[in-house]
Structure formats: structure tokens, C-alpha cells
Amino acid sequence: MVRLEHLGIAVKNLEESNELFEKMLGRPLYKVEEVASEHVKTAFFKIGESKIELLEATAPESAIAKYVEKRGEGLHHVAFEVEDIYAEMERLKNEGFRLLNEEPKRGADNKLVCFVHPKSANGVLMELCQEIRE
To answer: In sequence order, which ranges of the chain are alpha helices (DSSP H)?
Structure first.
């Protein structure tokens, strides 16, 4: 793993949360993006080398909607940048970690992503992400 890439925070209302985080961080967000396949709308704030991603559900069946309904707003996942997502997925599987997807998926912010099940990571949802190189 290269570095902590971002922290994902599940929110009920992205617009209100964007205003809150802009005040708190003293800077504007740099990107809003919808990931239709995951039924989520995201907003990103850059803090040094890392980012904060706010996530709002766009449909009741989305993972974010279910998370907010069950646990409320708050920290949803921790994301790590990796050099080679395929190699890192294979390494983690060999180490006994349970992955939520067998192949990387296209995520927000021009990334390929894969999630590690929280039951195999001390209750924390981990995301692996790699910049998409076109």
C-alpha cells in the first residue's frame, strides 16, 4: 500500500454536509461526482496528500442508504492507494482477507476500487484504490 488515500464519510444530505465541511476545513470541495452503478453521489475535499470523501445515497437500495439507516452518519470506510490493485487483491486473499468484489470496479475520482470485508479487518471497511491509467 502506498498511502492513506481518503476517508469515506456517509451522510444523509450531501449539500448540507458540503457546507459544514467547507466551514470546518476552511476550503471548498474540489469535486462532486455521481457513481450511478453504486447509487451514490460523492464530494471530495483535499487535505494535504489525503482526501475526505462524503457519500450520499441516491437510491434506497444503495450500500450507503443501508449504512446510514443502520448506523447513522459517520465514518464509512478507510481507503488506501495501491500501485497494482490486482496484485494487492491477490496478496490480501492469500493472507486470508475476504474481498467484497472479485474484480476491481470503477469508482469515484477516476479510480479502480475493491473493498475488504470489515469482518476480516477488525470491523473496518477498507478500500483499495488505484488511479485509472488510460
So the answer is: 14-25, 63-71, 85-94
